[in-house]
Amino acid sequence: MSLRIIFMGTPDFSVATLRALAEAGHEIAAVYTQPPRPGGRRGLDLQKSPVHQAAEQLGLPVFHPVNFRDPADRDHFVALKADVAVVVAYGLLLPEAILNGTRLGAYNGHASLLPRWRGAAPIQRAIMAGDRQTGMMVMKMDKGLDTGPVARTAMVDIGPNMTAGELHDRLSAVGAATMVDAMAALEAGTLTTVAQPEEGVLYAAKIDKGETRVDFSRPAADVHNHIRGLAPFPGAWTELAINGKPERVKLLASELAPPDSVNALPGTVLNEHLEIACGSGAVRLVRLQKAGGKPLSAEDFLRGTPLPSGTVIA
Question: Disulfide engineering: 117 pairs with which of 121, 122, 220, 227, CB 3.0-4.6 Å?
């Protein structure tokens, strides 16, 4: 026995779940993903999403409507006669016609401990807030934004120096296994759900470019969480004077410096270890990237761009 599934997802994060469901023996009736977008160096080539590419490798039919406002797209979805829709980072709010367009409804894999961090950027927001734990949840979807009842929860610890990229990969793998487990229970008729608590709701707004610049006047813990929460993409950044010109540099990894007394202007380079004074405490920059360059360790970066103690960076 297996379920007939419509899979809906777009980025790399979703691919592990698609592959896991196929490997578990479920019939993937169709894959829905976001349409190809302009990409490449000049932005002239249309690039298929990671899910689109994975679906083609698996020999699965792929559909990419811009939205489901066209009745023909909704009718086509229903005509697939699927048992269930599985949604992981698809990128569209689904209308009720789609949520109710399969025999058993739609189930979403969401990367947070709901109701905390509903919305677009739960991985980044959890780290930026200093959360020590997150997880993957499988919920039955309703017309709200990540408001449906929860069927499965898998907890994941957030290490003190873990970046958003590292947490992304961990949650992607955990989410795939959790969804396979949920679909096995759904197939067996034993899957149950529990309503989300009404308290503790937080929204994970999409990351805005205007919030990516590092503010060293904040406490060191906040600066550290900001850096790792935006690494590797879109990347927190600061400006350095390189060859007499200000240049944007991404900060891709950091650590909290030892809690010694720091008496320096925020943004001051304290020593050869690239420890930077903050509003309180200091952070050590571990990995940096110049515009157009490759990521470098702090040691390699300083070989090409010396930053003597006492230098103030913005």
Answer: 122
User: In whole angstroms, what is the distance from residue 154 CA to residue 177 CA?
Assistant: 9
Q: At what angle do helices 12-23 and 50-57 cross, to 10 degrees?
A: 30
CA-CA distance, 279 to 217, in Å (whole number)? 4
Tokens representing 118 are 């509903």
First to last CA, the chain: 61
**Beta bridge mates, 297:** 287
Q: What are phi and psi of 164, to 5 degrees?
A: -60, -35
Q: Where are the alpha helices (DSSP H) in the chain?
A: 12-23, 50-57, 71-79, 96-99, 122-128, 164-188, 220-229, 298-304
Long-range contacts of 195-200 (CB under 8 A, 24+ apart): 195/149, 195/150, 196/114, 196/115, 196/139, 196/147, 196/148, 196/149, 196/150, 197/115, 198/115, 199/115, 200/115, 200/116
The residues pairing with 28 across neighbouring beta strands, listed in sequence order, are 5
Phi-psi region of 235 (alpha: psi -120 to 50; beta: other; left: phi over 0): left
Q: How far apart are CA 305 and CA 250, in angstroms?
A: 14
DSSP 258: P
Contact 167, 132 (CB under 8 A): no
Task: Using pLDDT thresholds of 50, 70 and 90, give the confidence band for residue 241.
Answer: confident
Give 314's DSSP letter.
-
Query: How would you classify the pairing of strands 62-63 and 106-110?
Result: unpaired
Tens-place pLDDT, residues 158-215: 999 999 999 999 999 999 999 999 999 999 999 999 999 999 999 999 999 999 999 9
Q: Which two tokens stand for residue 100?
A: 């109710």
Kindly report the number of other CB atoms within 10 A of residue 8's CB atom.
Answer: 27
